[in-house]
Amino acid sequence: MSKQVPLMTEAKSIHGQWSSRLIFILAATGSAVGLGNIWKFPYITGENGGGAFVLVYLLCIAVVGIPIMMSEVMLGRRGRQSPINTMTRLARAEGAHPAWSLIGWGGVLAGFFILSYYSVIAGWAIAYVFRAAGGVFSGIDAAGVKQVFGDLVEDPERLIAWHTLFMLMSMVVVARGVRAGLEKAVTWLMPALFVLLIVMVGYAMNTGSFAEGLKFLFEPDFDKLLYACEMVDGAQQCEISGAPILVALGHAFFTLSLGMGAIMVYGSYMPKQSSIAGSAILIALLDTLVALVAGMAIFPIVFANGLEPGAGPGLIFQTLPIAFGSMPGGQLFGTLFFVLLVFAAWSSAISLIEPAVAWLVENRGMTRVRAASWIGLITWLLGLGSIFSFNLWSGERYKLFGKSFFDLLDYLAANIMLPLGGLLIAIFAGWFMSRESSQHEFAMAQPFYSLWRGTIRFLTPLAVVMVFLNAVGVL
Ligand code: PFF
User: Fold this and answer.
1) CA distance from start to end of the chain
2) Is the Cβ atom of 114 under 6 angstroms away from ligand 1?
3) Is the bond preceding 309 in cis, omega lying within 30 degrees of 0?
4) Which ligand 1 atom sits closest to the C-alpha of 37?
5) What pTM was estimated for this model as a whole?
6) Is a pLDDT exceeding 50 seen at residue 3?
7) How far is the CA of 352 from the centre of ligand 1 (A)?
8) Which CATH number fits the domain that encloses residue 257?
9) Residues 6 or more apart in contact with residue 411 via CB below 8 angstroms
């Protein structure tokens, strides 16, 4: 048994605690499973060529995601405060520089960025609930659904209305707090969503393009991953690019809610006796399963209808309705599906701002209601930029590095800020935290502790740095 470390073992969160380990797992899974799995994973897989991208993404989950998730939970539970204050407190306790609190600050900023566009996309899902319920999709074909989607995203006012509604929903839950707000939202929704995805896979199996969908998703073609091609004057031009690998890494962070303190703050509400390693592995497995099942539901529909896998952010909104439109009970299933998608987004959105809310309560003495209102207002305003990316600002002259405001924000937050935050978390947990402290907090048997420590000290940082260097063309 490791030596007792008195300072942190006494710490308690002022924000409350999850009532059990199961609730922690549900809440963290609620944070992890969201639009990232069902909306983003399929569309970036489509854009980056399929199987090889999926393989790299799975590798990133194993080598980078799981060890960092364990570290975030461990740091959070040890610090028992908002990520900013947790990092300050732990840095002090470990004799490290107070600047480590920058991990927390960077995370708050990333959370604002992500929530701002996350809420816009969740707004699309709300809009689709009503379209599905109203029978708009019955008997619809690929062209029809494209039209429905186009009509929605080209109308800024409608998008603002849905974005506002989703933001308000998120703020209400956050304002109610850990027990009353967050727990209730996650207990039964995730299993229901999963069941519905399985129903969709069942449908996809009967469309005739199931094999093609699976092949796209699981058969690695590394040329597609390593070469970025575009049509120039009617001829295809390809060049080696590290960008897709960075996208896979970024998505591993995004989908597991890592690198910005969301899982850290949830860890700070975790009961003392619970196993961190077991929980982290379970959450990562569940999250990955949902993403793969979503891919298995979507790509067969893409191929059966001659659609483009690289269609971009509209992919699921232009594929799934075709399935709902032609399956028995599709109106009901479609409605239910989009309702559950909204719930999945909801339980993720609340974790995106919890680090900032916890800090405002701790340091500014604000009530949760006030803190949530301020943060909601700021992210809502930022979200307008993403809304306009799909309509008023969709022209080339509004693009920077060929990316719209929405693309740029997503790229910056998911592919740069989260991996950078994760890298710093790995370095702090592996190199600056004493063996006694981390071993005590994990309370994990050998050789598992050493496996974590070896990975977080060497393999994880090396992998992240190599992907970065590769993406900027150094490797
Ligand atoms: N993991 C969420 C998803 O896959 O939809 C998104 C997310 C939530 C990212 C919370 C980051 C975060 F801190």
Assistant:
1) 43
2) yes
3) no
4) 4
5) 0.93
6) no
7) 7
8) 1.10.4160
9) 250, 403
Return all residues near 167 (Cβ < 8 A) that are at least 6 apart: 119, 376, 379, 380, 383
- Residue of 117, 352, 418, 425 to test ligand 1 pocket, by largest number of atoms within 8 Å of CB: 352
Domain count along the chain:
1
- For the Cβ of 352 lying below 6 angstroms from any atom of ligand 1, the answer is yes
What is the C-alpha to C-alpha distance for residues 332 and 339, in angstroms, rounded to an integer?
11
* Tens-place pLDDT, residues 213-259: 999 999 998 888 887 777 788 887 877 887 899 999 999 999 999 99
Q: DSSP letters along 285-330, please?
A: HHHHHHHHHHHHHHHHHHHHTT--TT--TTHHHHHHHHHHHHSTTH
Residue 422 has which token pair?
Answer: 């994760």
Tokens describing residue 52: 């090889």
Question: Is residue 37 within 6 Å of ligand 1 at its C-beta?
Answer: yes
> Residues 136-192: pLDDT tens digits?
999 999 999 999 999 999 999 999 999 999 999 999 988 987 666 666 667 777 788
What is the distance in A from the centroid of ligand 1 to the CA of 257? Answer: 4
**CA 333–ligand 1 middle distance (angstroms):** 25
Which residue has the CA at smallest separation from atom 10 of ligand 1? Answer: 257
* Contacts of 330 by beta carbon, 8 Å cutoff, 6+ apart: 137, 138, 323, 324
Assign 10 a pLDDT band (cuts: 50, 70, 90).
Answer: low
Q: Which atom of ligand 1 lies at the shortest distance from residue 39's CA?
A: 5
Q: Decide whether any atom of ligand 1 lies within 6 Å of the 170 Cβ.
A: no
What residue numbers bound the domain in which 81 lies?
4-471
Alpha carbon of 295 to those of 313, 424, 450: distances in Å?
A: 14, 31, 35
Q: Does the beta carbon of 355 sit less than 6 angstroms from any atom of ligand 1? A: no
Distance 80 CA to ligand 1 centre (A): 21
Neighbours of 436 (CB within 10 A): 12
d(CA 267, CA 351): 11
6 exposed, middle or buried (CB, 10 Å; 0-12, 13-18, 19+)?
exposed
Residue 100 alpha carbon to ligand 1 centre in Å: 22
* CB of 87 sitting under 6 A from ligand 1: no
285 Cβ partners below 8 Å, 6+ apart? none
